[in-house]
Structures are given as C-alpha cells and as structure tokens.
Specification:
Elements lengths: L4 H14 L4 H19 L10 H9 L6 H14 L2 H13 L5 H16 L3 H18 L4 H12 L9 H20 L10 H26 L9 H30 L5 H18 L5 H34 L2 H11 L3 H16 L5 H18 L4 H13 L9 H9 L6 H24 L2 H13 L1
Length: 455
C-alpha cells in the first residue's frame, strides 16, 4: 500500500486541478496534505520538508529563469506595438492570389510570431482577430480556419526562443545532472537551454512545412483574391514589415546559438529590441509601457508561483519514495528503454487533455526525466520530444488553451465543435513528427552535435 501513495498523490492533484482550483495552490496544498497524513501514519519523514527553503531559494537565484520575464516582455511588447497585425495584413495580400495562399500566410506569420514572441495566447488571439473573419469570407470552412489558427499559435511551443523550451531545458538540466550523480558520475555533463534551442530548429521547421502541405492538399477556399496589382504593391510593404521581426529573431537566437550570449543575456537584447521597434513605430507610450509591464508581471508571477508549488509537490513525492517506485516500474516494463519512453510519451499526451504544459513540465518531467536519462536516453532528443508532445496540450479538448483563446475572439457563428474537428488533423501532424523523431532521432540531435563539434 505504501508504494501506491505517490501515485495516489499524483492522481489527487490531477483531480483537484480538474475541479478548477489554482494550479500552484493545488500542487502545494495536495502535497502538504499528504505529507501531514503521512507523518501521522508514519509513512512520511517530515525531515524532507527541511530542504524546502533551499529549494525555493535555488529557484529564486536561478539566473537562467531570468530569461522568462524578459522573453515575456519581448512578446507582449511586440503584440502591443501592432507589429504582428501589420505583418499579417501585408502577407495575406501578398499570398492572397494563390490557392490556399491566405492559410499559408497565416502559418508563415504565425511561425515568425512564434520565433519572436514564444507566447501562444498572444499569437492565437492576434491571428484569430485578424485572419479568422477573412478566412471565413474567402470560403474556408469554420473547422479548417479555426484549426489552422489554433495550431499555428502553438508553434511558439517548439520554435525557439520559446518560454516552454526555457522551462523544459532548465528542468531537464537538473534531471540530467541528477541522473548522472545517481549513476556515480561526479563530474556530470550538462545540457543547456541553447542545446535544446538548436535541437528544436529542424523539427519546428518540419512542422511548419507539414502545416503548409496540409493546406495545399486539403484546403478548398471558394474565393481566391486574384488582384495581382494588390500583390505587387504589397511586396514592398511586406518586406518592410518582415525585416524588423527577422532582424530581432536573428539577433536573439543567433547570439545564443553562436555562444555570444547566454539565453538570459539574449532575452535582455530581445526585450530592448522589441522596445526599440515599438518606439520606431511610434507605439511606445507611457500607457502602453505600463500595460506591457503589468501583463509581464502577471504572467511571470503565475509561472514562478507554479514553479514553487511544483517544487513542494516533487519534494513530498520523493519523500514518499516515489522516485524509486517510478524507477522500478520503468525497469520492470517490457521493451526496456523503448517501452519506458513510449509509456512516458503516452502519459504526457493524455495528461495534456487536463493539464497545462507548465504543470506537466514542473511536475511530471522531474519525476520521469532522471529515470529515462539514466537509462541512456539522449537529453536533447528527449527534450524536443516532450516539447512537441506538450504542444498538443494546447489543442486537445476539453482544456486546450489555444481553443479557449480562439473561442474568446471567434464569432458566434463558429461552433465549438467546429474548433474541435479543425484541430484533429494538426494534432495528427504533431504526432507524425514525433513518430519521425523516434525513427530518426538525428532530426533533433544532428544540428546540436554539428555545432558543438564545430565549436
């Protein structure tokens, strides 16, 4: 019975979250309640809680996590400066004369926004407001229009620089070092957020290509904008709107990949660059700066509060011997490393129906990560696989946040069932990419190894 307590605690936390209680308080409250009951029944040693202050202080002094509020600031600033709206309008005019051109322009602009902001909610809302009415007017079905917008918004999960990759990279880094220490390796290798960024580039581009190919093959718009004069006149405007985010992406991501800056330093450059672009466009006012600061503070506070709750949860989970139970369970699984990895991916996919990517990153990954990494799984490959898997959590009903964001801006004529049907093909494309990565792990590991060897 004692071996089942960690699983019961995890299930209880999921039930509390499904009941609608705040994530951070649900994780911390469930863990402390189980710790109290466990101490009374003799199944939990309260000495484990003595490590909690050091854990929380370690979270606060983690310089890597400083990149989170800076990247959030960059994304919110780009959203408030209307840069994304101008880019979408000009790209839609530029590609509007082609079949499926409007849908392709939505995917391409969404990919650029993902690389420059990394915030799913901002991308989905912006794309929904700007492109959904036009797509419906052009004859796209409600399911296909909402599906491509919601799926494109989730590209911010996998295309670097991404908030999800930063959080996942920091979690995996700790799990990788712990796995090596458990194996008796006292000079452990490290995996950095930059490694994860490089590993996600090829899979992210493949996903963009998959989305475009799907639209070319299956979309059937009934109205095609064919005014070539408008397309020609939009070329210069598109380039004018395209160059600023491209320059910002190259500056931020390039400085990380070349080793000129850490992710935190590059995030600072990105925040400054986004502010400069807003000033150049004449959008930098005191009121707008105040709104950006407030939104950044709210999102950052939510992320770090969840991180604190997850730290308490994982500490109590280990106090109940959960790590040893999971390790023994994986070891006894048929199929070895493949069976264990497959089970983890299935569990993460199913949890995506009810949990957000942040909860899964902070709760599930620290539990299963050290075990898989100790079994010999490549940390960069595992991080990219988990990131793509977590991407589906934004699209899977009933709690897919991209669907919530889009539902808030979609017209009443678009049924929620249309959105559910529309995202199914894109979830299938994400799962196809995961299958390709499992067959050809070099898709995630080749570029990091190449850059590491060249340096």
């Amino acid at each position: 019975m004692a071996e089942l307590i960690p699983f019961i605690m995890f299930l209880a936390a999921c039930l509390v979250l499904m009941a609608g209680y705040p994530v951070a308080l649900s994780l911390a409250g469930t863990a402390l309640l189980f710790a109290l009951v466990g101490s009374v029944t003799g199944h939990f040693d309260t000495a484990f809680l003595m490590a909690l202050p050091n854990r929380l202080f370690g979270t606060i002094e983690n310089t890597t996590l400083i990149a989170v509020p800076l990247f959030i600031f960059m994304g919110v600033m780009l959203e408030k400066s209307k840069l994304s709206e101008d880019l979408l309008e000009s790209m839609a005019d530029l590609f509007g004369s082609f079949k499926s051109g409007l849908g392709i322009s939505v995917v391409l602009v969404g990919a650029l926004l993902a690389a420059s902001t990394g915030i799913v909610g901002a991308t989905v809302v912006t794309m929904g407001l700007m492109s959904l009415p036009t797509m419906l007017k052009r004859g796209y079905s409600p399911s296909q229009a909402t599906g491509v917008i919601a799926a494109t918004g989730t590209l911010g999960q996998i295309i670097p620089p991404s908030i999800a990759l930063i959080l996942l990279g920091d979690t995996l880094s700790g799990a990788y070092q712990q796995a090596q220490l458990n194996m008796g390796i006292f000079t452990p290798k490290i995996v950095s957020i930059g490694d994860l960024f490089v590993g996600a580039i090829i899979p992210g581009l493949l996903l963009v290509i998959f989305y475009c190919l799907y639209l070319i093959i299956f979309s059937r718009p009934t109205v095609v904008h064919s005014d070539q004069r408008v397309a020609n006149s939009s070329l210069s405007l598109a380039m004018k709107n395209l160059l600023p985010p491209i320059f910002l992406i190259i500056t931020v991501l390039g400085s990380i990949l070349t080793g000129l800056a850490t992710p935190t330093e590059a995030a600072g450059v990105g925040a400054f660059g986004a502010t400069a672009l807003a000033a150049i466009k004449g959008q930098l006012t005191i009121q707008k700066l105040r709104e950006v600061a407030q939104d950044t503070t709210q999102v950052t506070s939510m992320v770090f509060l969840i991180l604190i709750g997850a730290a308490i949860f994982s500490l109590v989970f280990r106090g109940f011997g959960g790590e040893e139970v999971v390790e023994q369970f994986f070891t006894d699984l048929p199929g070895g490393v493949f069976g264990a990895t497959l089970l983890v991916m299935i569990v993460i996919f199913l949890l995506g129906f009810i949990l957000d990517f942040i909860e899964i990153t902070f709760v599930v990954v620290p539990i299963v990560g050290p075990v898989l990494l100790a079994m010999g799984v490549d940390p960069v490959w595992l991080g990219v696989m988990i990131a793509i898997n977590l991407q589906t959590s934004f699209l899977t009903p009933p709690f897919g946040f991209a669907l919530f964001y889009l539902r808030g801006v979609a017209p009443a004529s678009v049924e929620t069932s249309d959105m559910y049907r529309g995202v199914i093909p894109f979830i299938g494309l994400q799962l196809l990419l995961m299958l390709m990565l499992s067959v050809w792990p070099q898709l995630a590991t080749w570029l990091p190894n190449l850059m590491y060897n060249s340096l």
